[in-house]
Amino acid sequence: MQHKYTAWGFYNDPADPRLVVPKLNPALGWTVNVAHPSSRHALVMMAIVLVGGIAGSVFLR
User: Fold this and answer.
1) I need a surface site. Which of 8, 12, 40, 50 has the fewest CB within 10 A?
2) Which positions ≥6 away from 40 have C-beta within 8 Å?
């Protein structure tokens, strides 16, 4: 089985219909298939949640 991971650790397989795929070591969690059409939306939403969480923890002290 050939892995479709880039040098930066991103999973890139246009033929794979899954948006979220397990990492090479499944114990490390999941990653986003950056070749999937919805991947940009998913990555933007994850960034919004991350920034919102950081901003909330800073401003709600």
Assistant:
1) 8
2) none
